[in-house]
Structure formats: C-alpha cells, structure tokens
Amino acid sequence: MSTGLTEMETPLRAILDRRAANRDLPPYRAALRHEIAAVLQGFFDATLPGATVADVKRVGGGASKEQFFFALTHEGETQRYLLRMDPRKAITETDRARESLLLDLMQGIVPVPRPAWTDNEARYFPQPAAIMHVVRGVTKPSVSAQKVSGLGTWLGPDYRDRLKDQFLDHLIAIHGFDWRGRPLPGFEVPDADAKQAARWTLNYWREIWRIDEGETRPIFALAEQWLLANLPDCAELVLTHGDYRTGNYLFDEDTAEITALLDWELARIGDYHEDLAWVLMQVFGTFDENRTFRASDLFEREEFIRAYEQRSGRTVNRKTLHFYDVLSSFKCYIICAANGSAAARSQHNHQDVLLTFLAAAAPMFADDLVRLLRQGEPA
Amino acid sequence: MIPTIDERLASIVRSLSEVIVPHLPEDASLAREQAGLIIGHVQIIRSQIDDAPAYEQAERDDAAALGQALLAEFPADRYGAAAMDALKQAITLTTSDVRESRRAINTAIEAVIQAISAGTCAASKSRLSSIILDFEDTRTQKDRKWFAPFGFDTI
C-alpha cells in the first residue's frame, strides 16, 4: 500500500514498501534458542565450514530486534558474537545492510561495534540479520542510583561528569564525517533544494504512520500541517545518527569510557539539528529533585546547545531546532501510537506486551506537541 | 458476577508472580521481562477497568465538543462545505460504539484542519491552531493522568 508520499530516500521507500507488503503475513513467534542455534549452525556450515556454534543465549530488552549472544569455535579459537535479527515487524523499519555499512565506515572515527556477517536478504535466517563482534560495556549503571522519575536512563553525578564530554565529542565526530570524500553506497543526498532534508525525514514518518494506520487526533493533525508549513532550510548536510541518546551507547563501568555507539539504523544524510533535537527530548532525559532537566542525564538544554556550538564550530539555529523539536515529538508519537501498536496488533513482533505497554507513553508526546506549538518559534 | 472480573485478574497476577515467574530459568531474560510486563499490565487493567467506559465516553465527548467549536467558528459556506458537513455528520452519528464515534469525529476534524491549513487566510489558521491547542491541552492532561500508572510520565 503506497500512499503517494514518494519523496524520500529510495532505499527508505523500499523499506516502507516492504513493511506495507508484509502487513498480512501470518503471526510471528519468538524464536527458541535451539531453533536459533540450528539456524546459526546452518549459516556457518555454508559460510565458514568447520565452525561450530554453542552457548546461544537470548538478550533481553530492546523492542526492535531479537538478539542472541553465542560462541563460535573455528580452527581452535572461540569467540563470542551477537546476532541481531529483525522480527517480522519492529517498532521501526530499518535495513541491516545500511547499518553494517556505516559501522564499517565509522571504525576508528567513533567507537562502534564491528560487524562480522550480514544476511540482509534473509537467505539463511528467518528474517534479515547481522552478526556483530561483542563489545564490553553497559547501557546504564548496573547499580543504579535513585532515579527521580521518567523514562530516561539515570546515570548519576559521577558518570554524568565522566561521560558528557565523550558523548558530545562523538556526536560532533559523526556530524564531521566526510561523506563527500567517502561516499556511502545506498545513501542518497537531499540536496535538490534547501528544504529537502527536512521534507524527506518528515515524509518518512508521515508515510509509516499511514502504513501502520495510526488513529489520528487533533493535535497530531495540527502538528503535521505545522511541520509541512514550516520546513526549514538545511545549512549544512551531515551524517546524522538518528537515535543518539543515553541508552544507545555502551560504557565501561570502571573507566567510564564509551566503548560503542549503538543503533545506527536510522542514520542518514540530513540536518544536524535533527540529532540535537532528539538528544534534547524530555523523554530520554531526567529531572532531578529540583525539577532540573538534563538531556540524556548529561546536559541541561542550554548547556548542551552552547557546548555543541563551541566545540563543533557550527551555529545552532533556534528556529530550525524548534522545527526538529516538534518533529521529534511527532516521531515519538508515531512510534508509540502507531508503529508499536501495529506490530502488536498484527502479531508480527516477539514483544507484543512491551509494545502495548510503551504505547501508553503516547499522551506525553501529544502533550509535548501542544506545549511546543503553543510556545511557537523563538524570535 | 461470581467470580468478579477483579477476582479473576487478581488470581492471574498471583499465579504469574508466585507460581510461574519463580520457575522461569534465571537466564530466560525475555520470558522474565515479558512476565513482569504482563503482571504490571494486568494490575493497571484491574485499577482502570471499572472507569474505562466513562473514560472512553469522555474522549468521544471531548472530540465532539471540539468539533462543535470548529463548526461554530468556521461556517461551512466559507471554509469548505465538504469537510464541515462531514464533521457535522460525524458528531451527530447515532451509534452505541463510542470508539467508532470518536474515530469518525477525529477523522473529520483532521479533514477540517487540512482544509483550513491549505487555505490562504492567516487569521483562520491562527484561530484554528488556538482552538485545537486549547481543547487538546485539556484532553492530553486527562490522557497523561489516565496512563500515569505505567510509570513513564513525570506528571
């Protein structure tokens, strides 16, 4: 079912067409460990003869992938790997090949997991899959300090001080990636006009909303029209991460070193304000006992914007940032109210109960849209 | 009703919590997570089930009130007869299905928003935005309060 919102990156158009085409497939069942072990062994029998798979363990958490750790023994050496496999329908629709390509290119620029094998066409696995080398680290302190409230990860003052500079420097390094000098096959550049970057990303989200038959509400409809009428010019096209925030990187608990930036599947060439607004989303941050907000539990809002400007040399355009603030809440509303619910409704995911639980966060994003549209653009 | 729905839900929670979860293997992380979510879900359902029909009726009634406000503000002869007529019909639709009624009204409101946004009158767009924001400000606060037991919200 295509709804005519065709102006977006061609590979993303194909991903959304796949989501639409898969809507009527039969229910998806979470894979059992012995089934995954057999599939993995079959894959390695074909691609690395003599290798043996053992110790397959499911990884908890995550609403977008089925993940398993396993040990692979080959020529007397044993190494641990992570299998990331798409369910039939996830909370977002993405592409394993694009993610693996980026992870290869970002080696040595920022810390990222190293891809080992990719089966993007699901030739061996039941669904598209990638196998990654295992990286040490945690996404949140294993002994978490008292968190006041909210959905974001609470790091606490010690980790906050030790992680914030790395967090910012890695984001600036991603935005500084020389994508013109090192082209990204399969990625298209929104440079037909100055508004194309914003239009492409907005169209992607509008289209996935329609495919997943999100139930409209007045504030959502108003926000959609506001976004269409206020597309900003992009001053500089950069590589954006797409889901940059605490919770999407691993860090070493002893040294507080960020060991890997995760979840690159929404990366594209676009406007750096899109990443900045995502970092600044209230839902990914924390409020302390004084109601002070910290984005990703690292920076207060103005502190983050100023630090980004000082260290990157870029200017943060407040009107553009406001557009992407609205777009971020619009995206989160779609993810919770449409994408997750559609995956659960169609029984195409292994975590239906998690997805319907997360859908309860949608009113927060509807309220964010009210607040942001009422606040209006900065002068 | 014997047993009551609450008694049945309570027994599901207890069985899951005290019989099933303790027997799940320690490394069955997904199963343990999902069981925890099911328990949480069912407990919230227990606390909300009696009030759910009134909540859904209020959602529908708030949508209808917004629709009436739009009809009063934007006469059909000046702002697109088709969208306004559809909104009027959606509000007056006779059905016992409050969800269907809410959906129909919100879909009609969306069409009105699109029609006015496509126009050239800045004053109309500003008035439209003001009406929607006022109504949705109230509605989203009710929704946030309703879903607060899920623990995401800082409300």
TrEMBL record, chain A:
InterPro entries the record matches: ACAD10_11_N, AGP_Transferase, Aminoglycoside_PTrfase, Kinase-like_dom_sf
SUPFAM superfamilies, alphabetized: Protein kinase-like (PK-like)
Protein name (record): Aminoglycoside phosphotransferase domain-containing protein
Domain Aminoglycoside phosphotransferase per the UniProt entry, residue ranges: 55-309
Automatic annotation (TrEMBL), chain B:
Domain of life assignment: Bacteria
Name assigned to this protein: Uncharacterized protein
High-level lineage: Bacteria, Pseudomonadati, Pseudomonadota, Alphaproteobacteria, Sphingomonadales
